[in-house]
Please model this.
Amino acid sequence: MENEKTRDEPAAESYDYPMIGYNVRCSRMARNRTQDELAKLASVGRSTVRRLELGQRVHPNSVIKICNALGRPISVINSLMPYGTPDQRRAFHQHRAEDLTWFGHGDVRKGIPKDNQKLLQSEPERARLAKLGLVSMFEAYAVTMPYGPSISYAEICDVVSLGRHETYRTCILVGLRGETVFRMDGVAVRIGEWESVGFDTEREATLEPAIPRESSSFPPLVLFVMGNRRGHVPIEFNETKRKRIRRLG
Model:
């Protein structure tokens, strides 16, 4: 889900370097890579990765290379990420409806508005794009705890691949609006409102609307509850401590 790229890339002058640096660091550590490894994968210098993670300006081409190496589009790296915001290191994290930021996955439009990210926050606009078959899924992240699970909301517009997640081991999928069809190992399961299914994210699975998109006013809405892999910490700002946790885990 999270590796699908969109084409609505922001202009270099709109880069929020502190936000990008934080998101790059979290994404790199979620993949258990060092700065040296990321630099080599992106074909940039280690100092470039280090400066970017500190929120300092680097050449826009280097930013794109690093984002590509992480498998994330700059439009996502330059926005709020699944890992939340830095103050999430507190003992608790409150999620509010107004905090949701929706992202589009699998956008096939040739021309995407510059203010697309703002437009996607409108439910009627997401419904319009879904009915036209232009976007496969909309996703909004709510809470990702440093040492625990995460939850996100997703509007399913087309067939979406769910399997082989690199950070989380297990997932519980809950239907909130409409109906979807979950498929794994050749078996199809219909999920209605307030129904759920749990599955291993190491296995390939797909999710799709149960009825044609043209017949529904809004795409089905589901909730993903994801559990961390043992010893895998999505957020950890002390790399020495992180390595010790992974070794003991």
